[in-house]
Amino acid sequence: MSSVFIQWRDEFSVNNETIDEQHKALISALAGLMDAMWAGKGKEELHKVIGFLVDYVEEHFNTEELYMAEIGYPAIDPHKEIHRRFIKHVSDFREKLYSGDVSSDTAINVFFDTWDWLKKHILKEDKMYSEYAKNRK
Q: What domains does the chain contain, in order, with CATH numbers?
């Protein structure tokens, strides 16, 4: 069922294979969460997805920020700030999970918040550094 709602689309590509593969990994994790929710096991899968997200944001944002620095992207600081806010958001999810304040709505909120953020972030913010890199060649 998740493939109908959440899947990689070519428009998500930022023309950097490493970053695109990382984005695909997050999309795959979110698809797994959605499948688990459809199967009535969203709360169980949530622990795995939150653990993945905590590791993912650190690795992925480091990769993106190194790439932006490498290409001399002039809007790197505002982009880093967006990353910091999302890291805080993921941390808040993790705190809620570990405090035991988890309901079936928590899995739904994590899924939709992360999927909405990811789509908007890639299509707006990440596309800006992608265009910058393309135009400087």
A: 15-135 (1.20.120.50)
